[in-house]
């Protein structure tokens, strides 16, 4: 980045040494405990700088040095803005030289959002090695398959050696188990060299339960006025707290040259100010890195707040769309338990509304909580929505982490994948989905003692309301999240790709994505927002997206077993049943896409 960002938080390496800034309004005294690269320990007191800030310049202390912070001569804590924690959340931080890595992709400008085909990836289970370096070796395969963007699960340092990353506590420090920071930069650079964007999943709605000492010296990070499933909510009304997270977003985008962020659980961010935190974050991204290259923001937001979505300059703000996943999952699997009961009636109509207008719930009452959910979304472009039939949540939050290949018949899954990849919304695949991976993706973590027991028992008790798990002995079969085998079972094996049926699934995914790249992508910007429509007839769904110059994209999908008569397409692009291209009847579970008149 050419723009200079003045970082408020964490160490700053300079000519004379390293300047440390630390916000601890609940501390009376703060000391810097240092171990130089030669192992020499030393201690230096911070000076109070007002408004809860402490500062000190450690002369001669540079890159490679390790440090901790001592609070009031009684508690040693990690720097919450540490740039690297080689020994994990409770170990010392390491001072880094942010300019030591020589980027080779300085001309990289990212990609327009309508070209995105996302691939959600967990570094620790994507390969047997579970490292950035090993993941680089698989990038050519992803690019060849038709992937154009990778979305990494959270990398912030979390407790233990394994986890999903959503319990991170040190948000500026990439998880050491995957490699060093320079290894992460090599991964991003290698992706860019193959034309792949890289987005990062960030968690700004809570901190994990282990290794977080903010309550001791910076209680203002939290507010008791609102609560989340993880405890007291983050206090976004405090300007310092607000900047801690906004600068974290800019840090990942500038220091590591990520092409965008996926922001976790926006619905758990409470802000009563004139400008909601998430809107200020997006504005900061747009005016910062997004003013120089394509940088995108994807929200997870159960509230379906359409007003937060759309394009801002080169920055597209989109949303993970559960409303696409849920009805299509019901159609493919027949499951209606839990939150799927919100989509058990008028299921096909809901899917049609999602494809044409964005959200299925646009102010209607959601049965799960009895509250109105969502806002009108038809005026937004299709690219404001990220669609998926699998992701880490929808697989990993199942008791046994089953993938759709275990839950849905082949013909139904083929149809669902075609709808996902040939509709104009932004599609996302979960790692291994492109070749029908058989490995589950289980919930795993690495806690010890009472916390490990509480998480294991809590996880099993969550499923007690489901009839199949009413029996306690059955619940005990649910894998222990802390067991190493739970993690190892979730790791992909790339050698599967060469064998049936995975080879055939990969060929099918490549075929769909080649149609998308050759036919659809260039026309997506021509779709006129607010004009799409859908019709249903028994099991038949037809969606029409009018475009400029009098053309329209048309998708016909038969979600039943018996053929359905349909008008003959004038310009048929693709059918999932190749032999029926000349037929006027749509075969059972067939999907067709054509270009017609609006």
Q: What is this entry, summarized?
A:
This protein has 598 residues and is α/β, with parallel strands linked by helices.
Overall average residue pLDDT: 94
Radius of gyration: 25 Å
Strand order of the largest sheet: 10-11-14-17-18-20-23-24
N-end to C-end Cα span: 43 Å
How many helices? The count is 16
**What is the tally of beta strands?**
31
Q: Per DSSP, what share of the residues sits in E-state strands of 2 or more residues?
A: 15-25%
Structural shape? globular
Low-confidence stretches: none
Class from secondary-structure proportions: alpha/beta
> How is the biggest beta sheet arranged?
8 strands, parallel, barrel
Question: Helical content, roughly?
Answer: 10-25%
Give the helices and strands, then pairings:
Elements: E1 10-13, E2 17-23, E3 30-35, E4 41-45, E5 47-50, E6 53-59, E7 66-71, E8 75-77, E9 93-94, E10 118-121, H1 123-126, H2 132-136, H3 139-145, E11 149-152, E12 156-157, E13 170-174, H4 181-193, E14 197-202, H5 214-217, E15 222-228, E16 231-234, H6 239-255, E17 260-263, H7 277-287, E18 296-299, E19 310-312, E20 315-320, H8 322-333, H9 347-357, E21 364-366, E22 371-373, E23 385-388, H10 392-396, H11 404-407, H12 410-422, E24 426-430, H13 449-461, H14 472-475, H15 484-489, H16 502-520, E25 533-537, E26 540-546, E27 551-558, E28 564-565, E29 572-575, E30 585-586, E31 591-597
Parallel strand pairs: 10-11, 10-24, 11-14, 14-17, 17-18, 18-20, 20-23, 23-24
Antiparallel strand pairs: 1-2, 2-6, 3-4, 3-7, 5-6, 7-8, 7-9, 12-13, 15-16, 19-20, 21-22, 25-26, 26-27, 27-31, 28-30, 29-31
């Amino acid at each position: 980045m050419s723009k200079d960002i003045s970082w408020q938080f964490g160490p700053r390496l300079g000519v004379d040494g390293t300047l440390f800034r630390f916000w601890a309004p609940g501390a009376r005294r703060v000391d810097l405990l240092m171990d130089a690269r030669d192992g020499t320990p030393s201690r230096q007191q911070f000076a109070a700088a007002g408004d809860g800030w402490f500062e000190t310049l450690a002369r001669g202390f540079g890159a490679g040095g390790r440090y901790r912070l001592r609070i009031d001569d009684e508690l040693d804590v990690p720097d919450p803005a540490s740039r690297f924690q080689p020994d994990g959340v409770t170990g010392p931080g390491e001072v880094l030289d942010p300019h030591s890595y020589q980027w080779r992709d300085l001309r990289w400008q990212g990609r327009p959002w309508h070209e995105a085909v996302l691939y959600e990836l967990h570094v620790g289970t994507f390969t047997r090695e579970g490292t950035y370096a090993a993941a680089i070796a698989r990038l050519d395969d992803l690019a060849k398959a038709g992937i154009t963007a990778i979305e990494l699960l959270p990398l912030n340092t979390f407790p233990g050696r394994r986890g999903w990353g959503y319990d991170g506590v040190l948000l500026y420090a990439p998880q050491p188990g995957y490699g060093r920071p320079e290894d992460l930069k090599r991964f991003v650079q290698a992706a860019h060299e193959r034309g792949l964007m890289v987005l990062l999943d960030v968690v700004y709605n809570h901190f994990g339960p282990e290794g977080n000492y903010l309550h001791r010296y910076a209680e203002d990070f939290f507010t008791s006025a609102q609560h989340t499933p993880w405890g007291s909510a983050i206090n976004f009304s405090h300007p310092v707290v607000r900047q801690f997270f906004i600068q974290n977003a800019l840090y990942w985008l500038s220091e590591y040259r990520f092409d965008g962020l996926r922001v976790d659980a926006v619905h758990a961010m409470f802000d009563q100010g004139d400008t909601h935190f998430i809107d200020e974050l997006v504005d900061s991204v747009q005016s910062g890195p997004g003013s120089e290259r394509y940088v995108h923001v994807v929200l997870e937001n159960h509230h379906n707040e359409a007003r937060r979505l759309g394009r801002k300059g080169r920055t597209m703000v989109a949303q993970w769309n559960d409303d696409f996943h849920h009805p299509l999952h019901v159609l493919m699997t027949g499951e209606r338990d839990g939150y799927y009961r919100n989509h058990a009636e008028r299921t096909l109509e809901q899917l049609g509304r999602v494809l044409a207008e964005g959200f299925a719930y646009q102010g209607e009452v959601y049965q799960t909580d009895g509250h109105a959910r969502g806002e009108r979304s038809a005026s937004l472009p299709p690219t404001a929505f990220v669609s998926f039939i699998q992701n880490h949540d929808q697989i990993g939050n199942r008791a046994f982490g089953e993938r759709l290949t275990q839950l849905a018949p082949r013909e139904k899954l083929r149809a669902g994948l075609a709808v996902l990849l040939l509709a104009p919304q932004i599609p996302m695949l979960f790692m291994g989905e492109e070749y029908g991976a058989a490995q589950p993706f289980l919930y795993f973590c690495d806690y010890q003692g009472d916390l490990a027991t509480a998480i294991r028992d809590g996880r099993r008790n969550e499923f007690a309301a489901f009839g199949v798990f009413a029996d306690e002995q059955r619940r005990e079969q649910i894998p222990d999240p802390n067991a190493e085998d739970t993690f190892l079972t979730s790791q992909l094996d790339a050698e599967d790709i060469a064998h049936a049926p995975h080879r055939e699934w990969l060929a099918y995914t490549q075929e769909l994505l080649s149609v998308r790249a050759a036919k659809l992508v260039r026309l997506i910007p021509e779709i006129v927002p607010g004009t799409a429509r859908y019709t249903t007839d028994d099991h038949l769904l037809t969606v029409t997206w009018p475009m400029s110059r009098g053309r329209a994209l048309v998708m016909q999908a038969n979600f039943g077993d018996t053929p359905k008569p349909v008008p003959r397409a004038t310009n048929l692009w693709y059918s999932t049943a190749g032999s029926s291209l000349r037929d006027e009847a749509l075969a059972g579970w067939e999907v067709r896409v054509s270009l017609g008149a609006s």
